[in-house]
Hints:
The structure holds 3 protein chains of 3 kinds.
Chain A: E1 4-15, E2 18-29, E3 33-37, H1 44-52, E4 59-64, E5 67-68, H2 74-80, E6 82-84, H3 97-107, H4 112-125, H5 141-153, E7 159-163, H6 171-188, E8 191-195, H7 199-205, E9 208-213, E10 216-221, H8 223-228, H9 230-241
Helix pairs in contact in A: 3-4, 3-5, 4-5
Chain B: H1 3-34, H2 41-59, H3 63-90, H4 96-116, E1 131-134, E2 137-140, H5 141-163, H6 165-175, H7 177-182, H8 187-210, H9 221-233, H10 239-259, H11 264-279
Antiparallel strand pairs in B: 1-2
Chain C: H1 21-36, H2 43-66, H3 77-94, H4 98-122, H5 127-145, E1 157-158, H6 175-198, H7 200-210, H8 212-217, H9 222-248, E2 250-251, H10 253-257, H11 259-272, H12 279-297, H13 304-319, H14 323-341
Antiparallel strand pairs in C: 1-2
Helix pairs in contact in C: 2-6, 2-9, 2-11, 2-12, 3-4, 3-9, 4-9, 6-7, 6-9, 7-9, 11-12, 11-14, 12-13
Amino acid sequence: MSDIVMSAVDVNVRFGGLRALADLDLEIRSGEVLGIVGPNGAGKSTLFNVLAGAIRPTSGRVLLQGRDITSSRADQRARMGISRTFQTVRPFLDETLVRNVAVAALAVGDGRAHAMDVAVDLLEQVGLADKAAARASELGHGERKRLELARALAVRPRVLMLDEVMAGLNPSEVREIVELIRSLCAASGSELVLIEHLLSAVRSLADRVVVLDAGRVLADGTPDDVFGDPKVIEAYLGTKYATS
Amino acid sequence: MDWRLVLQSVIGGLFNGSLYGVAAVGLALVFGVAKIVNLAHGAFILLGMYLVYVLHDWTSLDPFLLAFAAILGGLAVGWLVQRGLLARLMATGQDGPLLVTLGLWIAIEAVCAMVFGSNPKTVESSLSDATFSIGPANFYWSRLVVLALAVAFTVGLHWLLQHTDLGRGIRAVSQDTTAAQLMGLSVGGLLAATMALGAAAAFFAGALSATLVPITPGAATNLLLMSFVAAVLGGLGNIKGAFVGGVLIGVVEGVGSLFLPGTMKVFIVFLVFIGFLLFRPEGLRRRA
Amino acid sequence: MTTQATTSPAPRRVRPRRRPSLGIIVGIAVLAALALAPLTGSRHSLGIWTVALIFAGVSSGWAIAGGLSGLIPLGHAAFFGIGGYASAVVFAKYDLSPWLGIVVGMVIAAALAWLMTVLAVRFKVRGPYFALYTLAWAEMLRILASNLDYLGKTNGVLVPYKVDAGPADLQFSDPRGFYLVAVGYAALAMIVFLLVKRSPLGWRLSAIRGDEPTAAASGVDVARSLTRTMALSAAMTAIGGGLYAQYIQYIDPELAFNVSVSIDIAVRAILGGAVLVLGPLLGSVAMTSVTELTQKYMDALPSASLLVLGLAIIALAHWFPTGIGGLGVRLKRIWSRRSDRV
């Protein structure tokens, strides 16, 4: 099974008495877009934090191409090519958009001039080229999400984890960003992991879907299999998303 | 080891610590609710000292009685500072409030120096010379009164926070400002009340220490630093913890003075402080 | 075109342009002229501006950490005092050049700052806790200095006059000599600040100041960036402490380590604008001017300058959160926007 890029093995996370992740196993395979869904509090963001190194798991291991990276910090993992966006986007407000993105390119070893070029290109790709010299504080919500995407791409990710990039966007913005992510997947060759509440977006983008519930994997398979699974419908879709 | 000296140091430390404690309680309350590190807290303490000095000069009443008037003064000053200077800045979520309290600290100290000069002022209580003894050790009655009043104030504040509508409102704001707002609470009013109570604690602490130390424009700095230490030891934001933290520092100081020359006892206090910041930022409380 | 730009043919006109250098040259010329102006003044005013410039340098040193990284260190008296004591002790006790003492001070200050910050980062002491944490370190040094025989306890250390002293001993028969040293130090501190701000480290610090988790997720090594910055900031501050002790030929625990010294250092930078290269200088000049003016016109009230300072800080927090210098930047932006339209 050499096509496994990254995996979480038997991961547990406890916050005080709360068990946010329980004996969780997850594989991210080469060339796939993996969607992770689940109701609020299912542990999706915690899982991202564990994979990205923002939280050290209580027990269990995180592997990148077979190498144990459980004890490496968030910034080290970013430089290894594990990149993530945040659910609540917090760009560097006082800085220009180019600098917001360029600092990430700089961190993976680009020189400053080159980092600026990379940043400008990425801003073009996410459609923010005309605002490159503006400050991040001047951006609207949807634009900030796209800036975050550009920043996450700047570390040249092998694994790109997008946490609710579509939350709070209006339908036309969602359509735009779905298109954007589609083209990015095609172009960049990095594995894509997607946390999303918007199931229609997951269905149209993901090759494989993992459903989390109460810190455990409830289902794992193709979108059609998973969303047709009565277990999933009962635990999650049936109560909250039956009509959406 | 001389047992009389040990007793003297430990109980003396306890008395001092109660003063640190009551000052720390105000700092902890303001941090816990308004999330502000109030650098003006020392200036409030100073105002409490001078208020008692002025009132004593004017009425000749016992300073311990006047300490209750100082509470009123503190309530007024805290409320005004919050309403007039801090409320607008807190919304921006930047370093603004910290700067304002820094400016207040400098300005208030300057005003005190301008009005009262740098010559030390003293306030005498009728109790100032009376002593009592525990075993072989002798203590001033005034110290015991300070301890009693400090405990009474802290217990009173704690009761107010736990059992009144005002207190429930303040606790709601401290837990979740947005939720408190949605519940229809007047967050602005509650924050002003919080600052008023915090300043009242500072004024009270200043008033109590007015009988113990010579009053100068720089007299509150030590108490400010000690109350910061105590508030962190208690787990910033925790009222009871802050008071216990204060008492603990007093005792550490007292015990330290047995082994260490001069002011080195304070060195130990700061060492403990740094240790807590590093290893137990949640303070003395047991981990959840 | 060195990157993967092949996918998008859009013209690249958004490269942030470099600011015209003419303004900078004129600015430096004006600053140099102003810096030399006190040389023609009285001995008294020369002394005042010597101290003002030393503190401008110290404050620029603070701003490397306090402005660029977003940390709020409130204990820079620790580094200032280490510089002061090191230069005084090396000169008074070992009869070596105070310049050497300053270097010793820089090394000790940088080492202490590094240790402090390594611990603070490791145990996540941030925000207001970091301010109190640094303040506590400075207090410990103050207490230590006032109890150590080696450092003269509360009496401090006297820097003796030396017969046939020269610039190597930092003693000048003409007071203009020391003034020029102060000018040089302030300029050096500002240059170092600017170099850091423009360097890759400066980019990283700006990201950390913006949002730490996002910076880390962007691959920025937060711990390393902050420890290096604090060490550099401490070393630059220590130089100023050394110069100050040599200038007043004396150092004691209160002059070196008192909380008010830490506050003074920070306030000068904040007043002028802590993220701007000219901020600490502006703040320091403003503070010295206010002190001198109030002393001249309100002689009876020696604390009046502090009152003005306190009120100025409060006003600043309300209306000009980026300091005096920030006001200038804002005006300049409005100006350039207007001229764009023409």
